[in-house]
Design a protein that fits this description.
Blueprint (H helix, E strand, L loop, with lengths): L2 H7 L4 E7 L1 E11 L12 E11 H10 L2 E10 L2 H12 L3 E8 L5 E10 L3 E10 L7 H12 L7 E5 L8 H14 L3 E4 L14 E2 L3 H8 L13 H11 L3 E5 L5 E5 L5 E3 L12 H14 L4 H16 L9 H12 L6 E2 L1 H13 L9 E6 L6 H11 L4 E7 L1 H8 L8 H9 L6 E5 L5 H7 L3 E5 L10 H6 L3 E5 L7 H10 L2
Helix pairs in contact: 2-8, 4-5, 6-7, 8-9, 9-10, 10-11
Length: about 500
């Protein structure tokens, strides 16, 4: 197992501070079926409206999904949007005591009109912004810095999310970085689109995209330039501004990592079905911060951030991605050559990710079936197909070779566990396969807590290991009829008898 996967398996909750431009996003959804009579413009027939915290709040919520306790520092207006922003963040268990009210400016708000073409595909049509880009006053900056000082002793990482709305002034950023460097706390920055990164001098890491890096370095590269072409830009930024590392995000090409005293590295990503790139930059910042808070090296931190951002762009709008989903995505890609076979640790991650992927009212149902499955036959396949139909994801727990010998005798199994697990994994109805070496699968059952436990109808519920535990946890046990005449023991006996 790679160091990244080992760290993910032993992930530690952490504390983060996010400083930056906080916003409220208003999403107005509706159907677009016609053009207006008085102008050639589409008419949005509003169906629903949602309010969500946005801007730097996206980073905060992403961090919460990665097991962080988050304290936010920023400025809001003395208005209803400011109140809504506080409520929205608090609902995500984010500490909002660091938000300072400024009655001279509005809370930054962005209203997006989203039409459903032919009632099917969501498409952003237009956006209306209400904001001030004036730098916050020295008085407000002092208040923000006081909020930061109150958190330094209990903070693992600090993020600066700069949308150029006036909070992240050069003076504020430099004092934040100085305070954090003095306390030994890393500061990661998602920069605004600027020609000069002087305000971020001395940050631990900066995460521009390719266009932002070109602008800040004063260089324009041809469209389609390979990732390596950005190395001189990154080196210039790192040297000019004393950054420990520069991570230039390159969309489908992954990211370019330039780390002090280390050769530049292109960290590739995986091709994705891109639905909406909104929030991808915020996700990269949050994931890098979470990774550094868990002491990952920069290259592993970038791999983690690539996976998180890849999952983000597959969603419409800004959706925090739970740590378990990121862990599962990395796990599946790194262990892809093993097919569906999982260790118990890997399987618990996968199940947790599956359960976190469901909606509040509909969590995926996990089904577990177990057995020796020596000499796979039609009876096995029939039972597993019917087991899979009882839920959303079927796990097959299979006895290891020593376990089979203790149960069936010294001449069994016919096929070793590697073959049996591989054959089971080739069945379309099977989600994953886990091997256990004990006489019963109770350890697996307690680790997974399946919603449905399946056994053949020849058993009694009271005799099935783990059955009572499943029932006590709110699950159920299903006894399925076996296919008559289909038995591994009978098959083996006939082969040996030559009949």
């Amino acid at each position: 197992m790679s160091h990244l996967l080992e760290t993910l398996a032993a992930w530690r909750p952490f504390r983060a501070v996010v400083i930056g431009d906080y916003m409220i996003d208003e999403l107005v959804y509706g159907n677009v079926d016609r053009l207006a009579n008085d102008a050639p413009v589409p008419v949005l027939h509003v169906q629903k409206t949602e309010h969500r915290a946005g801007g730097a709040a996206n980073v905060a919520m992403d961090l919460v999904a990665m097991k962080a306790s988050v304290y936010v520092i920023g400025v809001v207006g003395d208005d209803l949007n400011g109140d809504a922003l506080r409520v929205s963040l608090s609902e995500h268990n984010i500490d909002v005591d660091g938000l300072v009210t400024d009655g001279e400016r509005p809370t930054t708000s962005k209203q997006s009109l989203i039409g459903l073409a032919q009632h099917r595909h969501a498409q952003k049509m237009f956006r209306v912004d209400n904001e001030s880009r004036m730098p916050v006053s020295g008085r407000l900056q002092a208040k923000l810095l006081d909020r930061l000082r109150s958190q330094l002793e209990i903070t693992d990482v600090v993020c600066i999310e700069d949308y150029a709305k006036g909070v992240c002034t050069p003076e504020l950023c430099q004092q934040v970085i100085a305070l954090c460097r003095g306390a030994g706390i890393p500061v990661l920055v998602d920069p605004a689109s600027l020609t000069d990164y002087g305000r971020y001098n001395g940050a631990s890491c900066i995460t521009p995209n390719r266009n932002e890096a070109e602008k800040a370095a004063g260089t324009t590269l041809p469209d389609g330039s390979p990732p390596e072409a950005y190395i001189p830009l990154g080196e210039k930024l790192a040297e000019r501004h004393d950054f420990e590392s520069v991570v230039i995000t390159l969309d489908k090409h992954g990211a370019l990592l330039l780390e002090r005293n280390t050769e530049p590295r292109v960290v590739p990503t995986v091709a994705r079905r891109v639905y909406d790139v909104t929030g991808a930059g915020d996700m990269v910042l949050a994931a890098l911060a979470a990774a550094k808070a868990n002491d990952l090296a920069w290259d592993d931190a970038v791999r983690f951030a690539n996976a998180a951002a890849g999952l983000e762009v597959e969603e419409f709008g800004v959706v925090p991605i739970p740590l378990e989903r990121i862990h599962r995505d990395i796990l599946l890609r790194e262990q892809g050559t093993r097919g569906k076979v999982r260790t118990l640790t890997e399987l618990t991650v996968e199940v947790s990710a599956l359960r976190n992927s469901g909606s509040a009212g509909r969590k995926p149902r996990i089904v577990l079936a177990n057995g020796c499955f020596d000499v796979l036959h039609a009876g096995h396949v029939s039972l597993l197909r019917r087991a899979a139909a009882l839920g959303d994801y079927l796990i097959v727990a299979v006895n290891g070779d020593d376990s089979v010998r203790r149960l069936k005798g010294p001449t069994r199994p016919i096929y070793p566990i590697a073959d049996r697990a591989q054959l089971l994994g080739e069945l379309e109805c099977v989600g994953s396969v886990v091997v256990f070496d004990e006489d019963t699968p109770e350890k697996v059952i307690h680790a997974i807590t399946p919603d449905v436990l399946v056994k053949g109808a020849q058993y009694k519920i009271e005799d099935i290991p783990g059955a009572q535990y499943v029932i006590d946890q709110g699950g159920r046990v299903e006894l399925l009829d076996v296919v008559p005449g289909r038995s591994t023991t009978n098959t083996v006996d006939r082969i040996r008898a030559g009949t």
